[in-house]
Design goal:
mainly alpha; Four Helix Bundle (Hemerythrin (Met), subunit A); two-stranded antiparallel ribbon; 2 strands
Length: 177
């Protein structure tokens, strides 16, 4: 199945509300939950998503639409959201919502046709290489879903010991990635 812009937008436009509902107003113990050193806490995931709005998805789509493979994408710093480490969670959620709305306005303005979904760009990682606009946009939606899953998993693991014998039935506690 090829990517559907309306379906992609359905996911992308809901992510800020999902995160605001899930994380808004929670205690620091929840939003700072961690799986250990070098892992993303829920607040880090939101900061990472903000950084992606600023530097990744729409900028790369613009490159594909205007320059194609002539200009490779800039590498994405997955830890670029660290600049928001001291930002309060309500501010992170609000900023993410604002940036995502602007990104979706840009995406809608691109007037993407099935033909334009086949346009290509060059990823700086040789393992990815040539990618289509359709692949980029589908990955954006799946990226959101993956990070929602990650947040929920990290939060659930706070109670790994607390659930006692039910742990055997709570598969979210057994999955590492």
């Amino acid at each position: 199945m090829g990517p559907s812009i309306p379906e992609i937008i359905e996911i992308l436009e809901r992510t800020p509300a999902v995160l605001a509902t899930l994380l808004g107003g929670l205690s620091p113990d929840w939003v700072n939950a961690s799986e250990g050193p070098g892992t993303f806490r829920p607040r880090d995931v939101v900061a990472h998503l903000i950084h992606g709005e600023e530097t990744d998805w729409i900028p790369r789509a613009r490159i594909i639409l205007t320059e194609g493979e002539a200009r490779p994408f800039s590498p994405f710093d997955r830890f670029g959201g660290d600049k928001y480490k001291d930002t309060p969670m309500p501010d992170l959620l609000a900023l993410f919502g604002d940036l995502r709305r602007a990104s979706l306005d840009s995406l809608r303005g691109f007037q993407i046709t099935p033909e334009r979904l086949q346009l290509t760009g060059m990823h700086p990682d040789p393992a990815l290489g040539r990618v289509t606009l359709g692949q980029l946009l589908a990955s954006w939606a799946v990226h959101d879903l993956g990070h929602i899953r990650q947040i929920v998993r990290v939060m659930a693991k706070r109670y790994t010991q607390a659930v006692g014998p039910w742990r055997a039935y709570l598969t979210i506690l057994e999955r590492s990635k």
